[in-house]
Backbone:
């Protein structure tokens, strides 16, 4: 029996799950795979699976997609499908095989999942905890693409926390999912060198693209069981955590060194972003407080020639902000309140001689 409409937000008929379930009988050469993902960044994994499943020699078929339920977005808070759900619809994936449970442990959802006879589940930034009852369903297990070198940076924000820490190397891991968060045996991984410019959204996209390639390469061994035999247990004593970002972390403090601030700007790019308070001193000496979103920064390599104290100057193409440890941060791109993002030069010109200071 199909789940109620509250779970199946895109359900439009009552036969698709039965059809997908019988596919394992009528199409013995293809194994049923279920993909779980929600944000836009995991759409690249979905694309890789869809493209591979449609190849003539594919060993699997995409039986269903599981994603977060529609949520209110935009000014009107209109209910919109998750980015992965919308991407699947745009690619022509049957809407009645897009499952959107509130929680992955709901019995109605689990009953539908069992009806699909999935041999393998693949997750990529799904965003829901998978209970034991879920993990017991696919005989080949559930594997996750995690954008870090496990056991480092387990948790919801591995890329953001790694950039915030100023790492110079990270990677992506393909690992079996177990009940403990991001703690399963690692099937494969790939290292990636990280420069001091890349921001979290770009690095996330890069790592999930690499993860998709690893997944497709390892699928045959995952299906035949040899991947499980060769997977390497994690050294839990070396584990570090990457907790979810909070909106109240977005404020910058210039009593830290410029490198620390720059790494935070890169890490928090996208959501929640970073912001700081400044004083604009008008021609009559009256101060006005501005809360400005900081979009792109650099660590200045110059020293000695700049003002000290709380004064902010402009040189080249950037605002020069004094920070702790006699370091200077270059703000290259910013967004004043009520305006679009702009270059530091355009912002400086708009001050028309007014002074800019730290608050």
Residues:
């Amino acid at each position: 029996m199909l789940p109620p409409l509250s779970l199946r937000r895109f359900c439009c008929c009552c036969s698709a799950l039965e059809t997908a379930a019988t596919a394992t009988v009528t199409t013995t050469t293809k194994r049923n795979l279920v993909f779980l993902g929600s944000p836009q960044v995991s759409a690249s994994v979905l694309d890789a699976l869809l493209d591979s499943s449609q190849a003539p020699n594919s060993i699997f078929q995409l039986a269903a997609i599981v994603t977060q339920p529609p949520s209110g977005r935009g000014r009107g808070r209109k209910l919109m499908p998750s980015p992965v759900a919308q991407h699947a619809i745009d690619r022509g994936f049957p809407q009645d095989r897009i499952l959107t449970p509130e929680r992955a442990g709901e019995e109605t959802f689990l009953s539908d999942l069992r009806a699909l006879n999935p041999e393998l589940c693949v997750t990529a930034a799904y965003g829901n905890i998978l209970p034991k009852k879920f993990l017991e369903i696919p005989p080949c297990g559930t594997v996750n693409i995690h954008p870090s070198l496990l056991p480092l940076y387990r948790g919801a924000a591995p890329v953001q926390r790694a950039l915030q820490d100023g790492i110079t190397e990270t990677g992506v891991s393909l690992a079996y999912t177990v009940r403990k968060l991001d703690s399963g045996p690692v099937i494969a991984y790939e290292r990636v060198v990280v420069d001091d410019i890349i921001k979290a959204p770009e690095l996330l996209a890069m790592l999930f693209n690499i993860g998709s390639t690893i997944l497709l390469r390892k699928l045959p061994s995952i299906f035949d069981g040899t991947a499980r035999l060769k997977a390497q247990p994690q050294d839990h004593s070396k584990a570090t955590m990457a907790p979810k970002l909070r909106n109240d972390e977005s404020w910058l403090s210039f009593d830290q060194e410029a490198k620390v601030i720059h790494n935070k700007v890169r890490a928090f790019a996208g959501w929640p972003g970073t912001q700081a308070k400044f004083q604009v001193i008008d021609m009559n000496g009256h101060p006005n407080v501005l809360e400005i979103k900081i979009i792109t920064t650099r660590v200045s390599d110059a020293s000695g020639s700049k003002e000290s104290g709380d004064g902010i100057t402009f040189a080249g193409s950037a605002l020069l902000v004094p920070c702790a440890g006699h370091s200077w941060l270059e703000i290259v791109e910013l967004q004043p309140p009520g305006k679009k993002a702009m270059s530091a030069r355009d912002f400086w010109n708009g001050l028309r001689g007014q002074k800019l200071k730290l608050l």
In short: The mean pLDDT is 91. The radius of gyration is 24 Å. The CA atoms of residues 40 and 83 lie 5 Å apart. The chain has ten helices and 16 strands.
